[in-house]
Amino acid sequence: MNAHPSDLLHDTSLIDIDDASVMRGDRLVLERFSLRIGAGEHTAILGANGAGKSTLVRLVTRELYPLARGDGRAAMRVFGRDRWQVSELRGLLGIVSPSLQQDCTGDATLEVTEAVLSNFFAAQRLGLDHRVTAAMRERANEALVQAGASHLVGRHMASLSTGEARRVLIARALVHRPRALLLDEPCAGLDLASRRQFLESLRELARHGTTLLLVTHHIEEILPEIRHVVLLRDGRLLRHGDKDEVLTDAALSDTFGMPVKVRRTGDYYSAHIEG
Ligand SMILES: Nc1ncnc2c1ncn2[C@@H]1O[C@H](COP(=O)(O)OP(=O)(O)OP(=O)(O)O)[C@@H](O)[C@H]1O
Q1: For position 201, what pLDDT does the model report?
Q2: In whole angstroms, what separates CA 182 from the centre of its chain?
Q3: What domains can be seen in the chain, in order of their start residue?
Q4: What are the φ/ψ torsions at residue 32 (nearest 5 degrees)?
Q5: In DSSP terms, which residues pair with 183 in a beta bridge?
Q6: What pTM value is reported for the model?
Q7: In whole angstroms, how far apart are CA 223 and each of 93, 94, 114, 206?
Q8: Which stretches make up the ABC transporter domain (predicted)?
Q9: Which of 63, 90, 165, 243 is disulfide-compatible with 58, CB 3.0–4.6 A?
Q10: 21 and 32 in contact (C-beta within 8 Å)?
Q11: Is 165 near ligand 1, meaning CB less than 6 Å away?
Q12: Ligand 1 centroid, distance to 25 Cα (angstroms)
């Protein structure tokens, strides 16, 4: 059996950001930002609106680039490398984001299996020059089962509920058997029960070796498997480390700029604003 390309990268960090500054429009949104996330380190990135979460996500997915550093060294490495073909990176790092969901559900005739298969070609839908093999179809079906979405085959993406479409996007990200999944607000728009079911399916992926990078506003979504938490505020890294040490009243109050009380129930955390 051929080695998965990611085997070659086993010992490197998943993300290594070293003194990165990022402009959006005419604003410096991240200023001299540093963060390392180890390979296999399930991580939650938490912050209020405007804290810089999406900017960080786009930096990782290569939709945004850091300003060049004065000393010529790379400010950003993913799986140990600072240069990637985006399609190659997608094979190692699956992405589920609101913008991807919007693109897929906005396409009136895009069918579920096609949405999954098209990721083999880093495309949104299949084109005439895309040659789908039997092995690809088999893998797409496996990924749909893994994401709990096989019952949706034959449906159009535009006809799915938010939670159903989210599952298909997970399957789409999984076709490459990525080492890590970057999930940007994956529970947005899900009702209470769908959210719990969805989080359970993410736990299953985490237990089977997919590293989760979960970007969220909600402390309740931090799964028991996630031990590493990153708190952002105003484009700065406020704190990061083991979740028991980071998820404190003081740190969360700083993150959200309000007096927050944190509660732990079993393996989950929740928070409410005091007063
Ligand atoms: N194109 C842009 N031009 C100027 N400023 C921008 C641009 N995009 C984002 N920003 C600013 O960058 C900061 C960080 O935005 P970002 O979208 O990364 O935050 P976020 O944590 O993802 O927020 P939310 O939770 O609301 O999605 C915000 O102050 C935002 O106004």
Answers
A1: 87
A2: 2
A3: 83-178 (3.40.50.300)
A4: 50, 55
A5: 96, 214
A6: 0.89
A7: 19, 19, 30, 10
A8: 15-259
A9: 63
A10: yes
A11: no
A12: 10
Mean pLDDT of 93-97: 92
| Token reading at 267 | 């393996």
Report for 95-99, 102-106, 210-214: range of highest mean pLDDT: 210-214
Look up residue 190 and give its two tokens. Answer: 């899900």
Asked whether this complex has an ipTM greater than 0.95, the answer is: yes
Please state, in angstroms and rounded to a whole number, the distance separating the CA atoms of residues 255 and 266.
Answer: 23
Which one, of 141, 155, 148, lies nearest residue 107 by Cα?
155
Q: Which amino acid is at 113?
A: T
Long-range contacts of 11-14 (CB under 8 A, 24+ apart): 11/39, 12/39, 12/77, 12/79, 12/80, 13/37, 13/38, 13/39, 13/77, 13/79, 13/80, 14/38, 14/39, 14/40, 14/41, 14/78, 14/79, 14/179, 14/180, 14/211, 14/213
Please give the pLDDT value at position 11: 58
Does residue 3 register a pLDDT over 50? no
- Whose alpha carbon is nearest atom 13 of ligand 1? 50
Using a 6 Å cutoff on CB, does residue 105 contact ligand 1? no
> Both tokens of residue 37?
């996330």
Report the alpha-carbon distance of residue 85 to residue 252 in Å, rounded.
37
Whether 148 has a pLDDT exceeding 90, the answer reads: no
**Closest approach atom of ligand 1 to CA 217:** 25
Question: Residue 12: how many CB atoms within 10 A of its CB?
Answer: 16
Give the pair of three-digit tokens for residue 240: 């990061």
37-90 per-position pLDDT tens digit: 999 999 999 999 999 999 999 999 888 999 988 888 889 999 999 888 888 888
